[in-house]
From TrEMBL:
Pfam families cross-referenced by the UniProt entry: Glyco_hydro_99
Keyword Flavoprotein: no
Gene that produces this protein: Maneal
Compartments it resides in: Golgi apparatus membrane
Matches recorded under InterPro entries: Glyco_Hydrolase_99 (IPR026071)
Protein name as it appears in the record: MANEL protein
Protein family (similarity comment): Belongs to the glycosyl hydrolase 99 family.
The keyword Transmembrane helix is annotated on this UniProt entry: yes
PANTHER family: ENDO-ALPHA-1,2-MANNOSIDASE, GLYCOPROTEIN ENDO-ALPHA-1,2-MANNOSIDASE-LIKE PROTEIN
Source organism per UniProt: Ramphastos sulfuratus
Length: 415
């Protein structure tokens, strides 16, 4: 009987503890609900506190993006510039006859197959520059490669890209981004005028904290210049400027720099070498469009560069579509395939172990190579392409992921 009494006493005690425990749980749940905090279901451990996201790592100075500052809007320029791009006729009048002519009429009809999240903006707008630098930083891009014409030159009589350089340098510096120059072809460009351009750029902007300098294998820090359509000038003319024995050589002077030529055709490799260039880039984002832009040729190009002490900078892009300004050029369109085209290009670039990768482009909207934020848009006459089902920032996020991958790969290569 004593054993039975002890057992019944235990049962009473356990029942009392159960009642007390239930009362405490109910009181806690009521207090939590009153405080407006969602209650955890009884029996589940409380969720751990949210860990703050790590601070964004700095940009990669081995990742260069081609940047265009030629856009204008009524608020800043008095009219739309470049967004109103003309439809370019085909060189064969018979082909041209089958396609529309005229100009685009912004803001609803712009010279692009995509529509920018910022709308048809002005490159002069400080808010736009700040947003662009934020997007570049979010993508981990360390070097903005500015499309540049000398003062008074440009592909538009009123276009003075040089006047924007101070604002671009300041805006870039605020995000720890650096600026390199992409010297465009202009009327009369040759080795003598480029000599003057280099002196002008270095004298005027060389002391700015955001002016990009590349650290060479010998430990020198030198400005780096991309020369677009460099093949338009004969190799022997460039040699006057870029070889140590040239008639007006920049080598071993205060204006020495790293000069990167555009490789289009296979034969350009030897011209670039004899001209005295330091390396080559491929620019075009349309795989197969040229010898240089064809991913399958990059291994052979890199082998040639390594054998001749040249730098190879492959150019990758998210896709290509320029039919909004060249309606007859559909055969060069490259579909983005929801980011797969871009990732394929990035993988092809990393396979050849380059020192630098260039991106075509941050904001060349006419050719649909931009990684800048784009939004869906439909008007009565146009349906724009977009990044759906992904967010407007999709290509910035992809770039950041690959920047981290590139950085890790480089550590392995160096080991």
């Amino acid at each position: 009987r004593r054993r039975r009494q002890r057992r019944s006493g235990r049962v009473v005690l356990l029942a009392a503890l159960l009642v007390l425990g239930t009362a405490l749980v109910l009181r806690t749940l009521r207090a939590t609900a009153a405080a407006g905090v969602p209650a955890e279901p009884p029996g589940n451990p409380p969720a751990p506190p949210a860990v703050p996201a790590p601070a964004a790592s700095g940009p990669s100075y081995d990742l260069h993006a081609f940047y265009y500052a030629w856009y204008g809007s009524p608020r800043f320029e008095g009219r739309y510039r470049h967004w109103d791009h003309a439809l370019v006729p085909h060189w064969d009048p018979r082909v041209s006859a089958g396609f529309p002519r005229g100009r685009h009429r912004p803001p609803d009809d712009i010279g692009s197959s995509f529509y920018p999240a910022l709308g048809p903006y002005s490159s002069r707008d400080p808010a736009v520059l700040a947003e662009h630098m934020g997007q570049l930083r979010a993508a981990a891009i360390g070097v903005l490669v500015l499309s540049w014409y000398p003062p008074g030159q440009g592909d538009d009589a009123e276009e003075l890209s040089d006047s924007l350089v101070p604002a671009i340098l300041d805006a870039a510096h605020s995000q720890a981004i650096q600026v390199a120059f992409h010297i465009q072809p202009y009327k009369g460009r040759d080795d003598h005028t480029v000599h003057e351009n280099i002196k002008y750029i270095m004298d005027k902007y060389g002391s700015h904290a955001a002016f990009y300098k590349y650290k060479t294998s010998t430990g020198r820090s030198l400005p780096l210049f991309y020369i677009y359509d460099s093949y338009l000038t004969p190799a022997e003319s460039w040699a006057n400027l870029l070889t140590p024995s040239g008639s007006h050589s920049l080598r071993n002077t205060a204006y020495d720099a790293v000069f990167i030529a555009l490789l289009v055709e296979e034969g350009h490799k030897n011209d670039i070498l004899s001209a005295g260039y330091d390396g080559m880039y491929t620019y075009f984002a349309s795989n197969g469009f040229s010898f240089g832009s064809s991913h399958q040729n990059w291994k052979a190009i890199k082998t040639f560069c390594d054998a001749n002490n040249l730098m190879f900078i492959p150019s990758v892009g998210p896709g290509y579509v320029d039919t909004s300004i060249r309606p007859w050029n559909n055969h060069n369109t490259r579909n983005r395939v929801n980011g797969k085209y871009y990732e394929t290009a990035l993988q092809a670039a990393l396979t050849v172990r380059p020192e630098i990768v260039s991106i075509t482009s941050f904001n060349e909207w006419h050719e649909g190579t931009q990684i800048e934020k784009a939004v869906p848009k439909k008007t009565p006459t146009r349906l724009y392409l977009d990044y759906l089902p992904h967010q407007p920032s999709m290509y910035l996020e992809l770039t950041r992921r690959w920047a981290e991958h590139f950085s890790k790969e480089k550590e392995q290569w160096l080991m």
